[in-house]
């Protein structure tokens, strides 16, 4: 007899679990809250929206003076609205994909559907990083293109400084600030979504291997 | 209507809960995680029950939903957890005369299965449960031929762990 056949016999004669759940307990379990991966991805997305909204509200009005000085107020407001609109669309897709997930599908289909959520998350990350990069790039370009404005914004007390030196300092400090911010953001995404999607990625790789047989 | 459905679900699941327990036992390695996964399986079964038409047996449908929950929806990682404290599940065998060979064998089998990856676990589980290849391929969404090839590999892996 094959080694596994012997184990299979043992498997078949194993006892039922000592902790059987009664109908009442099953009822309670069925109505408890799910904590599936998909749900967590959705919750994290919601928390992110809340996070960015809070940051936005906490920024003092004086911070926006720089945009006023640069006559960029309208553009900034327009992009803010667009930004939150885009985030809402992303969240809507999160929700849609979350709703579409059904444990009744076969495993391959299910993983593909969850992977679609993963892609939404990925595009969301790319979008956020692009926005950070683009907005600082635009702000800098406007600043640099007009040395009078730059002087006014960076040197409000009218101290005597060399304009070239000021430009260099501004560029370097901006680059450093943007880099630090992007690294922090990237780390945050890597940690949160990496943690959430680790198991899914592993199982998806296995299934891909199955297809390639 | 909803109440009838619920009553039927509770009785179907209550009778077949051992399937879910076995899946929890191979995908988790401690009692807390076992209960967590069991809860998630129950939620998923109930969530989808209204769409269960009864074309197949409840148990067949349940294998699919429960395995999917363990493989794709359950949040916790299954690989890095410490090995099971075997005292929380008594591997008592239904035997007339007391013989602990089978008990030890069952322990060894679970320990070996825990070392497999999630997909191999599913394949081995369906093999041990004596499921036909057609059902296995439909559950995982792969062709019967691929299921066969992959099954043989999973069995080889398991044999090597059991008998190095």
TrEMBL record, chain B:
Keyword Protein biosynthesis appears in the UniProt entry: no
Record keywords: Sigma factor, Transcription, Transcription regulation
Ranges where the RNA polymerase sigma factor 70 region 4 type domain occurs: 107-158
Gene3D superfamilies attached to this UniProt entry: 1.10.1740.10, Winged helix-like DNA-binding domain superfamily/Winged helix DNA-binding domain (1.10.10.10)
Transcription regulation listed as a keyword: yes
Signal peptide residue numbers: none
SUPFAM superfamilies: Sigma2 domain of RNA polymerase sigma factors, Sigma3 and sigma4 domains of RNA polymerase sigma factors
Domain RNA polymerase sigma-70 region: 13-80
PANTHER family the UniProt entry points to: RNA POLYMERASE ECF-TYPE SIGMA FACTO, RNA POLYMERASE ECF-TYPE SIGMA FACTOR
Family membership noted in the UniProt record: Belongs to the sigma-70 factor family. ECF subfamily.
Protein name per the record: RNA polymerase sigma factor
Organism listed in the record: Polaribacter ponticola
């Amino acid at each position: 007899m094959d080694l596994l056949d012997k184990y299979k016999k043992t498997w078949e004669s194993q006892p039922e679990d000592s902790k059987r759940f009664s109908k009442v307990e099953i009822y309670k379990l069925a109505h408890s809250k799910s904590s599936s991966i998909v749900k967590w991805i959705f919750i994290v997305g919601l928390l992110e929206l809340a996070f960015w909204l809070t940051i936005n509200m906490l920024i003092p009005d004086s911070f926006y003076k720089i945009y006023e000085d640069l006559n960029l107020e309208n553009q900034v407001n327009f992009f803010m609205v667009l930004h939150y609109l885009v985030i809402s669309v992303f969240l809507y897709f999160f929700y849609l994909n979350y709703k579409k997930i059904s444990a009744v599908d076969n495993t391959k289909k299910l993983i593909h559907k969850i992977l679609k959520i993963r892609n939404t998350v990925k595009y969301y990350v790319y979008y956020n990083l692009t926005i950070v990069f683009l907005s600082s790039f635009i702000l800098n370009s406007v600043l640099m293109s007009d040395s009078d404005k730059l002087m006014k914004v960076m040197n409000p007390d009218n101290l005597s400084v060399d304009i070239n030196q000021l430009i260099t300092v501004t560029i370097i400090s901006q680059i450093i600030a943007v880099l630090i911010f992007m690294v922090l953001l990237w780390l945050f995404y890597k940690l949160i979504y990496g943690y959430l999607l680790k198991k899914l990625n592993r199982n998806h790789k296995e299934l891909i291997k199955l297809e390639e047989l | 209507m909803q109440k009838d459905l619920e009553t039927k679900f509770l009785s179907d699941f209550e009778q077949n809960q051992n399937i879910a327990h076995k899946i929890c036992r191979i995908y988790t390695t401690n009692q807390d995680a076992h209960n967590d996964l069991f809860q998630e399986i129950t939620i998923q079964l109930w969530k989808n029950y209204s769409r269960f038409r009864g074309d197949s047996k409840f148990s067949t449908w349940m294998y699919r939903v429960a395995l999917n929950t363990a493989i794709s929806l359950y949040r916790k990682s299954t690989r890095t957890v410490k090995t099971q404290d075997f005292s929380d599940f008594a591997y008592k065998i239904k035997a007339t005369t007391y013989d602990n060979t089978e008990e030890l064998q069952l322990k060894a089998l679970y320990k070996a299965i825990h070392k497999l990856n999630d997909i191999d676990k599913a394949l081995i589980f369906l093999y041990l449960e004596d499921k036909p290849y057609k059902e296995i391929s439909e559950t995982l969404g792969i062709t019967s031929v691929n299921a066969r090839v992959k099954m043989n590999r999973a069995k080889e892996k398991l044999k090597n762990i059991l008998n190095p």
